[in-house]
């Protein structure tokens, strides 16, 4: 049965954020809010967490997982990024964008696209997510909480708790955060390719 944590959207309680971060460090799979919609998150090296996300979302090995980063210092350790791409990414973060880039050796192999050796990274613009990342002190392996055969992600914490009670370990609820996933931009070739149009404005990448 999943633990349920209710936090204030603008001033999340440090004790609650600390408890969720501790559970992630111990291998928990959590549902948490972002600036686009709710996501599933687990520790970067958690094979069990990765497997459970794949099961919940019915994902194949070509799915790009996202590494949720607190800042550019974290992001730069995970992906190779040249000056031109850096400027484009920097201008769009924090925000509702996921960028696909070549991964460094810091990223576990099971997270990489099998052929491209790429991974998704992003820096969210959400108070609760940033508080969780700051407390955790490391990137959070994530995937949009979009269930198989459903058109939109789950967006209410109580519903997530009800429907995934025996599949996740915790639900962090700060209220409705929208139903539109991030805009995904693939920079793995050096030039932007819009893979998915979502919450982020795509104008600068066209």
From TrEMBL:
<dbReference type="InterPro" id="IPR017945">
    <property type="entry name" value="DHBP_synth_RibB-like_a/b_dom"/>
</dbReference>
<feature type="domain" description="YrdC-like">
    <location>
        <begin position="14"/>
        <end position="200"/>
    </location>
</feature>
<dbReference type="InterPro" id="IPR006070">
    <property type="entry name" value="Sua5-like_dom"/>
</dbReference>
<protein>
    <submittedName>
        <fullName>Threonylcarbamoyl-AMP synthase</fullName>
    </submittedName>
</protein>
<dbReference type="InterPro" id="IPR052532">
    <property type="entry name" value="SUA5_domain"/>
</dbReference>
<dbReference type="Pfam" id="PF01300">
    <property type="entry name" value="Sua5_yciO_yrdC"/>
</dbReference>
């Amino acid at each position: 049965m999943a633990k349920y944590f209710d936090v204030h959207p603008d001033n999340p309680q440090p004790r609650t954020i600390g408890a969720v971060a501790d559970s992630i460090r111990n291998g928990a799979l959590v549902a948490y809010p972002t600036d686009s919609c709710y996501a599933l998150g687990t520790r970067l090296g958690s094979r069990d967490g990765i497997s459970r996300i794949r099961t919940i979302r019915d994902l194949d090995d070509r799915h790009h997982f996202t590494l949720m980063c607190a800042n550019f210092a974290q992001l730069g350790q995970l992906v190779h990024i040249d000056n031109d791409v850096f400027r484009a990414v920097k201008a769009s973060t924090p925000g509702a964008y996921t960028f696909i880039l070549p991964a460094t050796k810091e990223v576990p192999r099971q997270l990489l696209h099998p052929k491209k050796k790429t991974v998704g990274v992003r820096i969210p613009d959400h108070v609760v997510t940033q508080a969780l990342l700051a407390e955790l002190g490391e990137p959070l392996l994530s995937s949009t909480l979009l269930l198989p055969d459903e058109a939109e992600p789950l967006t209410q914490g109580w519903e997530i708790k009800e429907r995934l009670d025996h599949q996740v370990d915790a639900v962090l609820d700060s209220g409705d955060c929208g139903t539109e996933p991030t805009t995904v931009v693939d920079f793995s070739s050096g030039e932007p390719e819009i893979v998915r149009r979502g919450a982020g404005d795509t104008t600068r990448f066209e």
